[in-house]
């Protein structure tokens, strides 16, 4: 029991850094892929665009529990065996499995698409007349104008990844060094709860809220502007 307590205490910083790493990577991948996909659906014209958008909306209606088993089996098999190319038999107990299984969500693409559609087309037309390519228009003009949506999406993604418990609980089983902070807090409860040290458990829970509170306080203006996109029609 003493060994368990000491191990849990020494790993708390490691669990915090693990959650921070996963959250930042998830924010980065979500912003990049959601921006590009949202811009393509909002501005580009290609065959099947409407069908693709409807399929994306349908995927937002499917509960995560429906695809849970299939996602688990895909990670267990190393994405249909492709992970063997990198010398890995399975993506369970790896951060790559957590990242690839939730690279970008349909909700993030929808948010960016709706925001891009609120930007006047004249801005892009002026850039195209000046010789800019669609990618240059996106990264040099549209994205700098999309700070509210990007800020809101970054906060929501960071918060969701930082607090996520169930999926990491299934994917990351051993060793304890790869746990995220919510899984580490569960270990705290199992270890310190048996000896009645609930003060330490509550302190760990409070500490886990601090990064999200700081992020929200720093980007509150962008968050409010971003989530209100489309709420008011002129």
TrEMBL record:
Residues of the signal peptide: none
Residue ranges constituting the ABC transmembrane type-1 domain according to the UniProt record: 16-219
Keyword Transport carried by entry: yes
Transmembrane parts of this sequence: 20-41, 53-75, 95-116, 198-219
Keywords of the record: Cell membrane, Membrane, Transmembrane, Transmembrane helix, Transport
Record's GO cellular component terms: plasma membrane
Compartment(s) where it occurs, according to its Swiss-Prot or TrEMBL record: Cell membrane
UniProt KW Endoplasmic reticulum keyword: no
Main location: membrane
Topology of this chain in the membrane: Multi-pass membrane protein
GO biological process, any: transmembrane transport
Assigned protein family: Belongs to the binding-protein-dependent transport system permease family.
Name under which the protein is recorded: Carbohydrate ABC transporter permease
Species assigned in the record: Thermus islandicus
